[in-house]
């Protein structure tokens, strides 16, 4: 009984493993968990929008479902890290995502915007870790998040360009074919 009370006391005041882990770093990581879970939820909504029978875009469903799973894993990774450092995990409410999308491009643009915000927060968390002289947290963010984030932003931007190019090129191509077989005179006799 006495040891249980001691364990509770220790949980309230400090973890045994906690060492040079600033409160400010813990707050930044908890904020990051919330952003990752928000991203997980928004990608899930996107995925299942494109899975609807009246939308039926299996490739886009697959892409966003994978993204959703990855964001979930990111949140778990940070939660594991906070426990490893003897911090306290604080889960906060996540926002209701948009339920439908006009087009694949619309969803990709929203995803790009979201990934940039997530990256902004990661860079902030890294700056907080540096300011608090926490090389372990810097290394954690660098090796698991920062490069992946830059790669993801590039991939989304590439997809948006490809969609825009195909929209534009395809319509130009079809219009050109139409003109080829049409009477080209603007002033028909
Ligand atoms: Fe993420």
TrEMBL record:
It comes from the Eukaryota. The keyword Cell wall biogenesis/degradation does not apply. SUPFAM superfamilies: Ferritin-like. Stores iron in a soluble, non-toxic, readily available form. Important for iron homeostasis. Iron is taken up in the ferrous form and deposited as ferric hydroxides after oxidation. It catalyses: 4 Fe(2+) + O2 + 4 H(+) = 4 Fe(3+) + 2 H2O. PROSITE patterns: FERRITIN_LIKE. The gene is LOC109612263. Its EC number is 1.16.3.1. InterPro entries: Ferritin, Ferritin-like, Ferritin-like_diiron, Ferritin-like_SF, Ferritin_DPS_dom. Belongs to the ferritin family. Pfam families: Ferritin (PF00210). This is Ferritin. Keywords: Iron, Iron storage, Metal-binding, Oxidoreductase. Residues 19-167 form the Ferritin-like diiron domain.
